[in-house]
Amino acid sequence: QKVGVRHMAKAWHLLKRPQGLPTMDDFALRELPEAPLERDQLRVRNHWLSVDPYMRGRMNDAKSYTASFQLAQPMTGGAIGEVIESHMDGFAPGDLILHMGGWRDGGVIGLDMAPFKLPADALAAGMPPQTFLHNMGLTGGTAWIGLLRIAAAKAGDTVFVSAAAGAVGSAVVQIAKAREMVVIGSAGGAEKCAWISELGADAVIDYKAGPVLDGLAAALDTLGKPGIDVYFDNVGGEHLDAAFASANDFARFAICGMIDVYNDGHPQKMHHLIRTIPARIRMEGFIYTDQFFDCMEEFYADMGGLIASGAVTMRETVHHGLEAAPKAFLGLFAGANIGKMLVRL
Fold first, then answer.
1. For residue 267, which of 30, 109, 131, 229 sits 20 to 30 Å off, Cα-Cα?
2. Are 106 and 84 in contact (CB under 8 A)?
3. Which of the two residues, 42 and 61, has the higher pLDDT score?
4. For the segment 251-298, what is each residue's pLDDT rounded down to a tens digit?
5. CA–CA distances in Å: residue 298 to residues 118, 120, 144
6. pLDDT at position 265, please?
């Protein structure tokens, strides 16, 4: 069964491995070949695309936790699409789905793209579909798992969050405040810092205004806190070093990302790393998919309740049209987003 008029789908392809920050010359927008549906396949029309910092690592030819993008092949990533034609059990034309066939306006996807039908009750309650690309999806789940499971943060803890105006960081701030924690957020520029304050952060550091360690020390002094109990790292570099310097005994660090060094490849200089020993700091890197499926129902129930109550919100920075996807992606590394970076088709 088919609905609507089919069009020739297009997808962004990676042409070459970027050296440093990617450029538009590294990408090409090409038509996807027309193909009939086979069993366990869907034809979709995408409405929303996600671009995320982790995709930079997939552009390298290096072993990592997720497969590298293949040269001259369509790129992939999170997307919200509508089923146009189905040869897959449980899916019908008109269904809205979350899947990994992003960086394209549509086409044929299979089980390898992990299609997931958006819950009808959430949509009926007025939850925008793209919420499943941020607070009810990868970024919200990463924040929830990293803060509550990896760092085991609890009421009364002092939590330091880098990139607090980003999609993951802003979710961490709000989840922490909903759990009665003291939150210090770091971001670049007055507008982002003002938004973090609006989200409820107890103190905000503008890392563009001076050294992070100085800002963190001043925030702790103002709050009357001796140090931090939890650090949620999205940045690495100077922020991570400041967290080492400011950690209380038995502090827990959840290492989610290090966007400061994704493009330069230079080793990070840690002047205060030695404090991991006397302070007995526990630091753990984590990947969303390692834990998500074990706690998916708990996460959806908890985050859905926080969103419904207004305790967790999201700002979206939206680019329009498939052609804008690389620009949106590159904007992540220039601080061009407040909240979640999305592409609307």
1. 229
2. yes
3. 42
4. 999 999 987 776 666 667 899 999 999 999 999 999 988 887 889 899
5. 16, 18, 10
6. 62
For the record, the structure tokens of 115 come out as 């299609």
C-alpha to C-alpha distance for 269 and 28, rounded to whole angstroms? 36
Give CA–CA dist 203/153, Å, rounded. Answer: 18
Token pair listed for 79: 């997307």
- pLDDT value, residue 2: 45
Contact assessment for residue 39 and residue 110, using Cβ atoms and an 8 Å cutoff = no
At 156-210, the pLDDT tens digits run 999 999 999 999 999 999 999 999 999 999 999 999 999 999 999 999 999 999 9
What CA–CA distance (Å, rounded) separates 281 from 273? 10
Q: Residue 288: its pLDDT value, please?
A: 86
> Quick one: 93 exposed, middle or buried, by C-beta within 10 A (0-12, 13-18, 19+)?
middle
Quick: pLDDT tens for 204-260: 999 999 999 999 999 999 999 999 999 999 999 999 999 999 999 999 999 999 877
